[in-house]
Design a protein that fits this description.
The protein is α+β, with helices and mostly antiparallel strands and 128 residues long. It has helices spanning 2-14, 17-28, 30-36, 105-109, and strands spanning 41-42, 50-54, 59-67, 72-81, 88-97, 102-104. It is built from 4 helices and 6 strands; from the N terminus they run H-H-H-E-E-E-E-E-E-H.
Length: 128
Amino acid sequence: MTVSMLAIFNYQKSSSSIVSSTLYALRTNRRAREVLGDEIYFANKIPWIWGEMNQLHGRIDIQFWVKGTRAKALMRFHSQRKTRMGYFETLEWSLKTEDGQTIQLLQSEGADPFQRTPVNSVPGQQIV
């Protein structure tokens, strides 16, 4: 019974919009593609998502294994909403390779790919 419950909760995490967004952002991030290669997806057929996804209380801190055509790495995504009606701020988005090297992905592209942008924004325009 307990194993079934854990599997159901993990399935909900793996099919969430947060996980889908981080995978998409990995596929479009230049530095992640240099490290992992192309065809970035979960490293296992049945992925295990570790950590907390609590959007109601403003806390997301997850990690899971990903792989590409070149390498495999543990992706970590940590984001938090400081006020009840505020926006989420990404605190960490990184890859830890199998040899122990940590690559910070937020610094490689300059801007937070998960930042809120208005519908009619101009590409490259910073939101204040």
